[in-house]
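Summary of Year 1 activities. Much of the first year was spent building the evaluation harness for sequence design. The harness presents a backbone, in tokenized form, and records the residue chosen at every position. We chose the following record to illustrate the format because it has been used consistently in internal testing since the harness was completed.
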């Protein structure tokens, strides 16, 4: 999984227009682009696009997808300077276990539920 953030500085006064563009949703097919997640963060001075996906992500973000070029054109008048691209350097996610599922060890001999760690040795048959 690859994660990329694109930070785009906005022109002074472009915040409302940027918010309007973000409200329309993605201008291209996110699943078709191989993305698992996508988010947009908007501050008064910049917009941050976060993309999570498989190996195709870098190829799509490099401009191979024509829909990406069309989307970029809509943002053109709002942009104050060149975008900065950052790749994930560290992250953490909580993994939720499905209800009723457990990934712990299977109870058996020696566990708190009882049982011998080693089976008793068999008595020798009378001879």
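For this record, the design step produced the sequence shown next.
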């Amino acid at each position: 999984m690859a994660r990329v953030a694109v930070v785009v500085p906005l022109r002074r006064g472009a915040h409302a227009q940027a918010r309007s563009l973000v409200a329309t949703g993605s201008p291209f097919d996110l699943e078709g682009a191989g993305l698992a997640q996508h988010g947009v963060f908007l501050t008064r001075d910049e917009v941050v696009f976060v993309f999570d996906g498989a190996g195709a992500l870098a190829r799509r973000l490099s401009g191979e997808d024509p829909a990406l070029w069309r989307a970029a054109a809509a943002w053109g008048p709002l942009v104050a300077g060149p975008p900065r691209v950052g790749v994930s350097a560290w992250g953490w996610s909580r993994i939720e276990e499905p209800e009723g599922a457990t990934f712990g060890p299977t109870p058996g001999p020696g566990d708190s539920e009882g049982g011998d760690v080693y089976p008793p040795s068999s008595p020798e048959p009378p001879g």
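The domain at 2-87 is CATH 3.30.70.100 (Alpha-Beta Plaits). Quantitative recovery figures across the full test set are reported in Table 2.
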